[in-house]
Amino acid sequence: MEDDSDQEVFEDAEDVIKGCDIDLERSLHESSVAVSLFFNNKFDEAKQILEPWVGKSMYHTFGDSVFKFLEAVMTFEKQAIEKASNALKCSLDISNRYRKKQHTIGKMVRRPKYDQFTPDEMHAELCYAEALLLKAMLAFIEDETLVNFIKAGMKIRVCFNSYKECSNILKSRDWSDVQHVVHFQSGVHVGIGAFNLMISLLPSRIIKLLEFIGFSGSKELGLSELMAGYKLDQGLRQVLSIMTLLTYNLFAIYVLSHQEGNLQLCEEILEEQLKRYPDGAWFLYFRGRLEFMNGNINEANAWYVKSWKSQSVWPQFHHLCFWELMWIHFATHDWNQAAFYADTLLKESKWSRTIYGYQKMSALLMLESIDSTQQEDIDTLVGYIPQWKQRIAGKSLPIEKFCVKKCERFKSQKGTLILPAIELLYVWNYFKVLGKKWELSQPVYKLILKHLSEFERGKFSGNLFEADNKALLLLLKGACLHQMKRPYQAEECLKSVLSMEKQIKDDLYIIPFSLVELALVYHNQGDTKKAVQVLENVKKNYTGYSLESRLHFRIHSALLDFNSNKKNVPK
């Protein structure tokens, strides 16, 4: 549990416990049924199980708050966010009332006697940690001020301490007389696992700060805890370990690093879960992502469409599918369909109109022939994209700033951009997917060569940003060659980019990104020492460029991987 200064009293919760007519065993059973219904797309039936006991049973109350939380983050609607906030406040209140009361001074002097914790008190500690984590996450969209971000950070610290307390209970307590230990165990595994994994992904400079205020993270521990949670087939929270493992291996790794996810594990998990939930939107969606990461475009498209059409209760879930379908059509150069999905997101989703707008604009600019309606769309988007940019805690999102900057370039280059959709595929790290299949990488390579040939013929001469544009094409060519397993040509191409460093006026990100790409080429050629030197050079000597934080995630991941491999090499 936490210091008194961190204790948050939820006196204004909606409901007060006045005797509960439902015991823990029934709460756990009904919550398990609700989880099963939820992942079978029977959302209303799941809610009907939970709602009668909201404010009376901590598990029913927390389950209800989870549903409201998911709706809030999918819609970004103020009313949904307020409902989720109130529901989580209620969940925190009821969990806090059941938690074991301990004085801070006493706890500092002696270790708590965990065998004296009742089952209700143990599960209350776990539910409290879970609800507080969701409340902190909701705070980031509820009130986007710096003060609120600091408060959210404090909540996460309290939550982290609660999970550590639950871990101590699990390790120290005698469980011979306690039923349903598997439900508590599954919750501890997913909580400790997710925290460790999340922190381990962060760049080293952020990790040092977090360690100073009491956080720590180990990728190996995180994955082992999540695997332990996944193996607890009867655990109420097993599905959370599953969702975290799938998200890490199919999304986080591909966006934040150079590595591949454990696709074999994902295959195993999804085979099991689709037998259990054959029409479940979530697992159909993850199956689509698995096929996409394997480069199986047609199969991915089919699974995403199946996921999209599997339910209509939560239309906001469709947006996740539309986002993926848009990238599939970017990868296959079906620019009209890519623009269609980007436009649908622009009209229906509130996440980032700046990103959606620029994605639509990029797709349209890739068309060989642009009609008057499409040109009007492009001109309109160029004006609105900067206006849609969001500020969170006083800062703009880096990827939105990138999109706005490209719109400014479009205007300064008299209505042109160089392969904007291919550039987006690169900065979102989708070149790794292109490298899985020749039929995906070869068309991109030919497109880049075509534009480089036009450069040689002087088509873009006299442009103020001629060097920037050529450097971009050479970076894309080098990255493409790298994925096509042609390292020496990739190295030559990337070194050509570096030779242009002093000529680049605006796209300063191209040089550090090229250096990181070159480091990966060196590593794949077996020269890990040289790769590490290049990455350290980027960390120390380059700053103030677009998408810097995104690149630092990849540098951190690569250095961890390279240094780990060096330690494992036999002497």
UniProtKB/TrEMBL annotation:
Coiled-coil region list: none
Record protein name field: Tetratricopeptide repeat protein 39B
Protein species of origin: Lygus hesperus
Gene this protein is translated from: ttc39b_0
